[in-house]
Amino acid sequence: MDDSGIIELFFNRSEQAIEELSQKYGRLLQKLAGNILGNRRDVEECINDTYFGIWNQIPPKRPDNLSAYACRIARNQALKRYEANTAFKRNSQYEIAFEELEDCLAAGSDPAAECEGRELTRLIEAFLDTLKKEDRILFVRRYWFADSVLELSERMGLTPDNTSVRLSRIRSRLRIYLERSGY
């Protein structure tokens, strides 16, 4: 079933909407949540929360891209659960991916930082537009989907060392891009 059909099922409040969404995007959502959480039970709960969140948001929302919409909700759910699970401990897969970006990004949680965060998002989106398609895929799969370097190298047909070097070069270019943009 295509995305518009699934969305119509949500608008009709048909429980089949969840089944169709799960059939079409369930594996993608599980992979995304699994990369962040690393625990099967947490992933299952996260995916259930994702479906519940989508059920509550459609209607009234009518997403243009159902896959991206569902991934964003799943990622946010996984991040909430991740924060709760790791308040005093460290989860290596997810932490390592973001430690790689620490030199480029500043953290903050006040209103000024939120405004700065929106500007940073805009700058990163503009930066991604400057990359070749393969580099953009590497960056997004590593830092949004939290794929491991090994998974990325297999997906892209590269060696793990080559993948690490390319990610390092992309981060260096990002750092320079952000500095030149005044960040």
Give a description of the structure.
The chain has 183 residues and is mostly helical. It has 2 domains: 3-85, Orthogonal Bundle (Rna Polymerase Sigma Factor, Chain: A), CATH 1.10.1740; 96-180, Arc Repressor Mutant, subunit A (Orthogonal Bundle). Helices cover 75% and strands 0% of the residues. The chain has helices spanning 3-11, 16-37, 40-57, 66-85, 92-99, 111-130, 133-143, 149-156, 160-180. Helix 1 packs across helix 2 (16-37), helix 2 (16-37) packs across helix 4 (66-85) and helix 3 crosses helix 4. It is globular and about 50 Å long. The relative contact order is 0.09.
Top CATH class of the largest domain? Mainly Alpha
Q: Structural class of the secondary elements?
A: mainly alpha
Helix content: over 70%
Element-level helix/strand string = HHHHHHHHH
List low-pLDDT spans.
none
Number of domains: 2
Task: Give a concise summary.
The protein is 75% helix and 0% strand.
Layout of helices and strands, plus pairs?
Blueprint: H1 3-11, H2 16-37, H3 40-57, H4 66-85, H5 92-99, H6 111-130, H7 133-143, H8 149-156, H9 160-180
Helix pairs in contact: 1-2, 2-3, 2-4, 3-4, 8-9
